[in-house]
Design a protein that fits this description.
Layout lengths: L3 E2 L4 E6 L5 E7 L9 H11 L15 E5 L1 E2 L2 E2 L4 E6 L6 H4 L11 H8 L16 H16 L4 E9 L2 E2 L7 H12 L8 H16 L6 E8 L13 H9 L5 E6 L10 H4 L3 E3 L5 E3 L7 E2 L2 E2 L4 E7 L9 E5 L4 E5 L10 H20 L2
Antiparallel strand pairs: 1-2, 2-3, 3-7, 4-7, 5-6, 8-9, 8-10, 10-16, 11-16, 12-13, 14-15, 17-18
Helix pairs in contact: 1-4, 1-9, 4-9, 7-9
Length: 359
């Protein structure tokens, strides 16, 4: 199993959902950066389960930094983060051991690891490990912010409901990012927030689940970041987005609808602003051309499928007895992970951006 990623900033993820702890080791961070532990806590709180719209598994998610930091500053050596698992209920999974959960990695994990994988709570495949990503990404976001690079996301759509999209105007976008970064349920339209929460609660009551789309924008990136082909900024960030459990689609700029435009409409035309900076009059390509940043905001959408753990009875197989069986999943599961995934996407973006920035 490959658990590491990155070139200039590399990280290794370890642990399982129901093991004693999960963690991540970051290597390549600059020395002498003052880490804001309160900011890490704030980011971790955004990922936590809340109310009826999330799993009832509540973890303290206290971040322990074991190495790579001294007197509050990074030392430049490998920084290791540990987060203890304190609220596991492994017996919830013993009832359907051998019964493969539809939509989960149970079958593929069994085939790849010959049945030796830790299946409890999804083991290493679990979204539980994104807690480590958020903690590590929080540090990277702080470093990027010190360089004027800011990341923000909101729930573009959830099931059939849609939020106000991010503005194409830089000044307005900057304010929108600040607004959603201060929220635990990241939407721009407070009215649609209540409707989304009601839909999640309805799905939970019916034993079902929902998916959605997140829109992310990154402002302050300089032009020239990325490579033309195999390590374009799009391919670099996409591979990280697809590493987040339940992500099924990633698109940059107007990628999902740009095929409906003429070339004269899709091209982002250049001009000099009043300060002599190169800008584009539109941003259909999401701040990236030829795989490289052009100085405009980088925009991206990430689509999450509905949570696969649902209480409805489903058909499956028992891989131990070789029988066709039925499965009714019980336990503590999210009816929707989209609202909790906002900070996860931002953290992954920060890890990927800083990795390229350090080149």
């Amino acid at each position: 199993m490959k658990n590491n990623f990155g070139t200039n900033i590399s990280w290794t993820l370890f642990g399982e959902s129901h093991g004693p702890a999960i963690g991540i080791t970051l290597d390549g961070l600059p020395a002498g950066f003052k880490v804001d532990m309160e900011q890490i806590k704030s980011d971790m709180d955004k990922r936590k389960a809340t109310g009826k719209i999330s799993t009832q598994r509540h973890e303290a998610d206290e971040v322990h930094i074991l190495s790579g930091m001294y007197n509050g500053y990074t030392t430049g050596t490998a920084l290791t983060i540990l987060i203890e698992n304190q609220n596991t209920k492994s017996k919830d999974y013993s009832a359907f051991h051998g019964r493969l959960r539809p939509g989960h990695a149970d079958f593929t994990a069994f085939e790849k690891y010959n049945g030796y994988q830790d299946y409890r709570g999804g083991g290493h495949f679990s979204g539980r490990l994104t807690a480590c990503i958020v903690a590590a990404g929080s540090i990277c976001r702080q470093i990027l912010k010190s360089q004027g690079i800011v990341i923000g996301s909101h729930i573009e759509s959830l099931y059939t409901l849609s939020d106000i999209p991010f503005s194409k105007d830089y000044t307005v976008l900057e304010k929108q990012i600040q607004e959603v970064n201060d929220k635990n349920f990241a939407v721009l339209d407070n009215q649609v927030k209540n409707q989304m929460i009601q839909e999640i609660e309805k799905a939970a009551a019916e034993g079902d689940s929902l998916g959605g789309i997140l829109e992310t924008a990154i402002i302050g990136l300089p032009a020239g970041l990325g490579e033309p082909f195999f390590d374009s900024l799009e391919s670099h960030l996409s591979s990280l987005m697809f590493s987040i459990p339940a992500v099924k689609s990633v698109s940059f700029g107007d990628g999902e609808s740009i095929d409906e435009m003429l070339g004269s409409e899709a091209n982002d035309c250049y001009y000099y602003d009043e300060e002599g900076n190169v800008r584009t009059s539109t941003n259909h390509n999401g701040g990236i051309t030829g795989g490289i940043t052009n100085g405009m905001p980088v925009s991206c959408t990430v689509t999450f499928k509905p949570t696969p753990s649902i209480a409805k009875k489903q058909k499956t197989i028992n891989i131990e007895t070789k029988e066709n069986v039925e499965l009714e999943i019980k336990g503590r599961h999210d009816p929707c992970i989209v609202q909790r995934a906002v900070v996860v996407v931002e953290a992954m973006m920060a890890l990927g951006i800083l990795d390229m920035m350090r080149e």
